Prior knowledge:
Elements: H1 5-26, E1 31-34, E2 45-48, E3 52-57, E4 67-72, H2 82-113, H3 119-152, E5 171-174, H4 177-196
Antiparallel strand pairs: 1-2, 1-5, 2-3, 3-4
Amino acid sequence: ISTSHLQLAAFALGTVGWILCTISMGLVEWRVWHVDNTTIISSGIAWVGIWKVCFISYLHVSPGYKEEFCHKFSGYDSSIPCEIYAAQGLLLIAMFMGLLGLTATIFALRNVYMGITHKTLITRFFLVGGFFYVFAGLCVLIPVSWNFYSVTHNQSIAFPPSYYMPSSPAVQEAGAAIPIGIVAVILLLLSGTFSLSYRFPVTANTTTK
């Protein structure tokens, strides 16, 4: 048990990283667009996520009230950039890989703490868990970096007219989903490193003549 403290930490870090990955995937605040025309986007701010785009409007509601309008991205919208569709697929893969990593780590820790001294089984499951953690971390790193690059270069998106969105903002900035994704990457890669570093304790056999 004393040799698996890092692997227990890997499970804790991997769990938090997996949760943050899921939160990042569900948030719409990947890119925050500041627009000049407030006729429809009343607040002047729109949020571009990987599944939908949202903004606040006072146009079709009673005075003093506001309503959030969201448009979900369709697979048929060729105008939506590749980094958004790539983020959808990669984050789904990351969530699944992270779950597999947690499962493998739980199984290995169960054997350790129950005193099951099956060297090959325990070592392999820690290695498999570490591989899944690292793979999940890389799957999060790619869309987070790609979308952050698009934000820093103020890249435009040719939204369909039905979205009521301009093709480019006056200014855009990274939303909350990107830093959350970065933290998830760090935790998943750390947990993978800890899991892969496991070494089964070697017991010396002493022979007395």
